[in-house]
């Protein structure tokens, strides 16, 4: 029987196999030759009979008979050095890590997610108190923008850096940054100092979130990864809910400085835990394995691509957050930021196509199925955050509800998101399948968006609240499955980079959803003012619109849209 290459296998069975998971032979070879002896018996029999292999199952997929390769190009010659293999125990956990050590490390990861998401969503309810204290209400948007700017732009770099220098140094550095800058927030004496502290908090959060995801993949095999993704989803959702729900309460009862101070003891415990329990051998550790110092290791790092990626993402977020919130969209600062982002992005594509080890590999991003999965999440985040950002405004402006009541109506969708996210993780581990979760989740999000777009001003409030649930169910089902599918269709060499890239595009989807929906609402306000406002003073009302604060313009636009039946 002739040997079977990955290319031949994919081309001959592309129509029969699910596009989300590779077969065992495909995951093993990664562009190299897989002999029949290496294939499962059932697959060899099917190949001999001329029939397609069965739909792949992550419970049966193995990257190598003795483990999975961790060093790039270790399979280039069809052989793998034993020292380049990651081996797992029968329970699916990494060899060399005791059960006690595993519980400490993974417990620290999920608690880190909890505290990081609590901190990042804290601004939603506490920023009015903070800006009022510093008499700087016009700087409110910068409290969240500064954090988002650094955390989003740095996340894609973490994967490639951790491949070079190891997971532990970046994870510990992220905790150090987050602990120190959280204390800085609590002690800040001016709004400028506080905004700078929030920006550096984003650096720590980028390290925490990226390394938590990558380290979990290092610690457990792909067969049981879904279970631990469920635990991460639970703590992730819990932290977000606690920050948004109790941030204002803590500010009122303890003061805004204490909302940051109470995080410091927990972060110190997590830091000590990370220093003493995190294994040093997680990840490829290319610099250590090659015997190179930091300076020599950085020579092979994609520095130009990293700078361009950070610059393009940072200026894109800056322009989208400033436009319509602090400055009008025609303001020179907004236009300049967006132009720089476009130019940097174009140069980035050219640089990454020539780089030896690009920080964002374009072939992975624009190839099936990984590219499809990444952009699925990007567009889904745009839709989901358009809904979440504007739902409270709808209930306040059209249904005339208070801010607290309108916010409470998001409790149901948030609960549905958490339950579905946790359930999806356990389902993937039990069944080994994820394609149907992504398909059902995407259809559910489409159903939710269709229901919301059909609402009218006289719709019962209870029905409008129910219409928010399908989209959250869809996100809860599809996002964990997408995360695992991206890892399952990547080699160990590429998994850290792909995980960071997926997080980046999800974050960009969040920013785009908020900004685009804000732009549409402001343009709708101008249109409906022209159409609906009549009388002698109509010109004064229309010309006064640019002077109205952005949030008030959005409120008025929603109310006009509701009255007009749109």
UniProtKB/TrEMBL annotation:
It comes from the Eukaryota. GO terms for cellular component: fungal-type vacuole membrane. Residues 1-13 have a biased composition (Basic and acidic residues). It is found in: Membrane. The chain crosses the membrane at residues 100-118, 170-189, 195-216, 228-250, 262-282, 303-327, 333-352, 373-395, 407-429, 436-456, 508-529. It is a multi-pass membrane protein. InterPro entries: MFS, MFS_dom, MFS_trans_sf. One of its GO terms (molecular function) is basic amino acid transmembrane transporter activity. Residues 105-566 form the Major facilitator superfamily (MFS) profile domain. Keywords: Membrane, Transmembrane, Transmembrane helix. SUPFAM superfamilies: MFS general substrate transporter. Residues 1-82 are annotated as: Disordered. Residues 14-32 have a biased composition (Polar residues). PANTHER family: MAJOR FACILITATOR SUPERFAMILY (PTHR23501), MFS MULTIDRUG EFFLUX TRANSPORTER (EUROFUNG) (PTHR23501:SF67). This is MFS general substrate transporter. It comes from Plenodomus tracheiphilus IPT5.
């Amino acid at each position: 029987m002739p040997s079977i290459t990955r290319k031949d296998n994919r081309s001959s069975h592309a129509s029969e196999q699910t596009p989300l998971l590779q077969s065992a032979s495909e995951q093993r070879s990664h562009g190299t030759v897989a002999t029949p002896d290496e294939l499962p018996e059932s697959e060899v029999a099917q190949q001999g009979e001329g029939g397609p292999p069965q739909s792949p199952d992550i419970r049966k997929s193995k990257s190598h008979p003795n483990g999975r390769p961790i060093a790039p190009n270790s399979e280039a010659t069809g052989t793998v050095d034993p020292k380049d293999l990651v081996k797992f125990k029968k329970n699916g956990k990494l060899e060399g890590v005791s059960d006690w050590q595993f519980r400490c490390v993974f417990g620290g990861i999920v608690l880190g997610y909890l505290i990081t998401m609590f901190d990042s969503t804290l601004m939603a309810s506490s920023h009015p108190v903070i800006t009022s204290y510093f008499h700087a209400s016009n700087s409110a948007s910068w409290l969240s923008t500064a954090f988002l700017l650094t955390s989003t732009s740095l996340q894609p770099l973490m994967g490639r850096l951790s491949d070079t220098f190891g997971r532990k140094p970046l994870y510990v550095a992220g905790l150090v940054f987050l602990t120190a800058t959280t204390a800085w927030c609590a002690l800040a004496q001016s709004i400028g100092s506080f905004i700078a502290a929030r920006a550096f908090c984003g650096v720590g959060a980028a390290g925490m979130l990226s390394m938590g995801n990558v380290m979990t993949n290092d610690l457990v095999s792909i067969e049981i990864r879904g279970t631990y993704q469920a635990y991460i989803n639970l703590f992730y959702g819990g932290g977000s809910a606690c920050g948004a729900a109790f941030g204002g309460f803590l500010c009122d009862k303890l003061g805004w400085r204490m909302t940051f101070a109470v995080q410091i003891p927990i972060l110190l415990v997590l830091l000590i835990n990370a220093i003493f329990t995190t294994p040093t051998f997680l990840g490829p550790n290319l610099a250590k394995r090659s015997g190179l110092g930091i300076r020599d290791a950085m020579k092979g790092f994609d520095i130009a691509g990293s700078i361009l990626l950070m610059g393009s993402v940072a200026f894109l977020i800056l322009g989208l957050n400033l436009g319509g919130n602090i400055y009008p969209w025609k303001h020179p600062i907004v236009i300049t930021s967006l132009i720089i982002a476009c130019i940097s992005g174009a140069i980035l594509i050219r640089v990454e196509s020539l780089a030896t080890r690009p920080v964002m590999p374009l072939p992975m991003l624009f190839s099936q199925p990984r590219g499809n999965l990444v952009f699925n999440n990007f567009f889904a985040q745009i839709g989901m955050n358009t809904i979440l950002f504007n739902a409270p405004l709808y209930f306040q402006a059209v249904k005339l509800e208070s801010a607290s009541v309108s916010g409470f109506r998001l409790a149901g969708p948030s609960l549905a998101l958490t339950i579905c996210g946790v359930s999806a993780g356990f389902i993937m581990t039990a069944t080994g399948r994820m394609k149907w979760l992504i398909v059902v989740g995407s259809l559910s999000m489409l159903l939710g968006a269709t229901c919301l777009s059909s609402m009218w001003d006289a719709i019962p409030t209870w029905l409008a609240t129910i219409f928010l649930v399908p989209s959250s169910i869809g996100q809860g089902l599809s996002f964990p499955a997408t995360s695992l599918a991206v890892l399952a269709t990547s080699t160990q060499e590429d998994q850290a980079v792909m995980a960071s890239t997926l997080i980046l595009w999800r974050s960009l989807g969040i920013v785009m959803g908020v900004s685009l929906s804000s732009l549409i609402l402001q343009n709708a306000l101008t249109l409906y003012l022209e159409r609906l406002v009549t009388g002698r003073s109509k010109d004064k009302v229309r010309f006064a619109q640019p002077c109205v604060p952005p949030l008030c313009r959005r409120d008025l636009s929603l109310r006009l849209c509701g009255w007009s039946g749109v």
